[in-house]
Amino acid sequence: MDYKILATKYGTPLYIYDFDYIKSRYLALKNAFSARKSLVCFAVKANSNLSVLKFLANLGSGFDCVSIGEVRRALLAGANAYKIIFSGVGKKDEELKEALQNNILMINLESPAEMLRLENIAKELKKQARISIRVNPNVDAKTHPYISTGLNENKFGVEISEAKKMYLYAKKSEWLQPYGIHFHIGSQLTELAPIIEAANIVSNIMSELKALEIDIKFFDVGGGIGVIYENENEISLYDYAQGILGALKGQDVTVICEPGRFLTANAGVFLTKVLYQKLNSKKRFVIVDGAMNDLIRPSLYNAHHGISVVSKQNGEISNENSVQNLNEISKADVVGPICESSDFLAKNVDLPELKNGDLLLVKSAGAYGFSMSSNYNSRLRCAEVALENGTDRLIRRRESFEYLIALEREFI
Ligand SMILES: *Cc1c(COP(=O)(O)O)cnc(C)c1O
């Protein structure tokens, strides 16, 4: 792909997503579970662009949503309502109501209090609510503490004993229908053992529920499959699926998984332009036009994103090791224009001499990139472009200043 042409056509900074890659990942995951009924529910928070959602919906994907805004996005993108799950620790009454009215597959409950709210709302609407309960299996996912969610010290899910009580309550309720069971122990998982351990724990709960005549139809293993940003261990999809299916021996359920990052992280790059170089006695800084408001993962999680230079000759990415004259390469921090010391995209990376106008590619930026972006420093959120079958198309316009101030202007 000629990134120089894309930069000229759409401007920078710019997110670019390879839809063919998303498709190959989706199909690989479906294929891994082919021995069973399965439903892949893309975690919308990872990349909520409508065109990405529409592309996935057309492949048959379902969606895991954590706000009614995400549910609306999924529906707007053409998702089948019966493939939408609504999760999250703090759903509001209006959100629960709208989710029920839209007949989504199920509402994933995260506390007994929430269950009682939902029961009331279902009763008001005279509509039975299909529920799932997010169980906290108390398994250490061995990932970054900010994205680890499966321990009792985390705010997510309910403890096993509590979950059983909730299912019993729901079974007796006229307005609640136990439908699924859910866990999600964390993100960017690079070890299989914790997921399989959790799957076995939750599968056992399901057997116990069955003995109580509570019939669970969907076994939801959450998302969290890790991807390679740098040199991480990648979980084998085959082993992942086999491990989960192994935990489900003798159980007649549909497996749901909720990948976010797995489907889109490495489909995306963030293209940014060099503004200046700056040297001080300690450091070399490459100042670019993209910043933490566009891609916050480095600042938020100290996340690593590979950086490569778009070479001058042909606009193709050059391999980091073969960049121009090796003598010119030195360590640099790639930083943005925002007034925060944490505004960096990469630290201590090897880069050749660069000048104003050179382009850098920040890799693995297709998940939790644009979807976590903001307008901090009154920066306009950048454009997004899709690549499909060798052609590029705009899927989100760059924001304008008028758009930025639209909700304030009338008050001055
Ligand atoms: C964040 C999240 C996901 C997706 O996580 P990834 O690491 O992007 O796969 C799936 N399910 C739930 C409940 C989540 O909170």
Secondary structure: elements and pairs:
Layout: H1 3-10, E1 14-18, H2 19-32, E2 38-43, H3 50-59, E3 62-65, H4 68-76, E4 84-86, H5 93-101, E5 106-109, H6 112-125, E6 129-134, H7 160-172, E7 176-182, H8 193-211, E8 218-220, H9 237-247, E9 254-257, H10 261-264, E10 268-279, E11 284-288, H11 297-301, E12 307-310, E13 330-335, E14 344-351, E15 359-362, E16 383-388, E17 391-396, H12 401-405
Parallel strand pairs: 1-16, 2-3, 2-9, 3-4, 4-5, 5-6, 6-7, 7-8, 8-9, 11-13
Antiparallel strand pairs: 1-10, 10-11, 10-15, 12-15, 13-14, 16-17
Helix pairs in contact: 2-3, 5-6, 8-9
The protein binds pyridoxal-5'-phosphate (PLP).
Q: How would you describe this structure to a colleague?
A:
Pyridoxal 5'-phosphate binds at residues 224, 258-261, 368. The active site is at 339 (proton donor). Pathway: Amino-acid biosynthesis; L-lysine biosynthesis via DAP pathway; L-lysine from DL-2,6-diaminopimelate: step 1/1. The protein has 412 residues and is an alpha/beta fold. The chain folds into two domains: 3-14 and 265-405, Lyase, Ornithine Decarboxylase, Chain A, domain 1; 35-259, Alpha-Beta Barrel (TIM Barrel). It is 29% helix and 23% strand. It has twelve helices and 17 strands. The strands form two sheets. Strands 1, 10, 11, 12, 13, 14, 15, 16 and 17 form a nine-stranded mixed sheet that branches. An eight-stranded parallel beta barrel has the order 2-3-4-5-6-7-8-9, surrounded by seven helices. β7, α8 and β8 (218-220) form a beta-alpha-beta unit. α5 crosses α6. The longest helix has 19 residues, at 193-211. The chain is globular, with a radius of gyration of 23 Å. The structure holds pyridoxal-5'-phosphate (PLP). Pyridoxal-5'-phosphate binds next to α10.
